[in-house]
Design a protein that fits this description.
Elements: E1 20-21, E2 24-35, E3 50-56, E4 64-65, E5 68-70, H1 77-89, E6 91-104, E7 109-121, E8 133-137, H2 138-144, H3 148-163
Parallel strand pairs: 2-7
Antiparallel strand pairs: 1-2, 2-3, 2-5, 3-4, 3-8, 6-7
Length: 183
């Protein structure tokens, strides 16, 4: 069954299914992205043709973030990343690439971030009343991202997209598995 068909009106809660590795809570998330203009040519991606989706933090003063959250024992890493993105940002799409692994400073968490090509933006999603979502340019997102890991992940997204041909943007899910095979 497709994720959006299973969508509930509330986010998952609790930590009883939470994954830990060597005492670190496992976190996964995505940088949702889209292209301003559909590119039908097989050319390299220009940073100006790209928009990323950021969401407001639930706590004041934390600024704008990329959707991320706990990876639970009853789901794959990809299912968790997509679920967190639907719950927090209200978008559905295809995971295209693993952007890397980060340790979140002072939080005893480590996490993986993925590039997610957005296929649909939902009108209703579990955290709609808790968060704002804003599409912005890469340059704007760099200014908004307060944490180093977020800037690093954004830079990796841009580098990956600019070094891969534009046909990756429309490839079907799972075609770019080689970059995720070690997860």
């Amino acid at each position: 069954m497709e994720l959006k068909n299973m969508l509930t009106v509330v986010s998952r809660t609790g930590r009883h299914l939470q994954r830990y590795d060597k005492g670190c809570r496992q976190v996964v998330g995505c940088i949702p992205y889209r292209f301003k203009v559909a590119n039908t040519k097989t050319t390299l991606v220009d940073e100006d043709s790209l928009e990323v989706l950021v969401i407001s933090a639930q706590r004041k003063g934390k600024g704008m973030l990329f959707p991320k959250g706990g990876w639970e024992t009853d789901e794959s890493i990809f299912e968790a990343a997509k679920r967190e993105t639907v719950e927090e940002a209200g978008v559905v799409g295809d995971i295209k690439n693993c952007l890397g692994q980060w340790n979140f400073e002072n939080q005893n968490k480590e996490g993986f971030m993925f590039a997610l090509l957005v296929k649909e933006q939902l009108e209703f999603w579990p955290e709609k009343d808790k968060r704002q979502r804003i599409w912005m340019s890469v340059a704007e997102a760099r200014k908004e991202c307060k944490q180093k890991w977020m800037k690093d992940a954004l830079d990796k997204l841009v580098k990956w997209l600019s070094t891969n041909e534009a046909h990756l943007a429309s490839s079907s899910p799972g075609q770019d598995r080689k970059s995720k095979s070690n997860l």
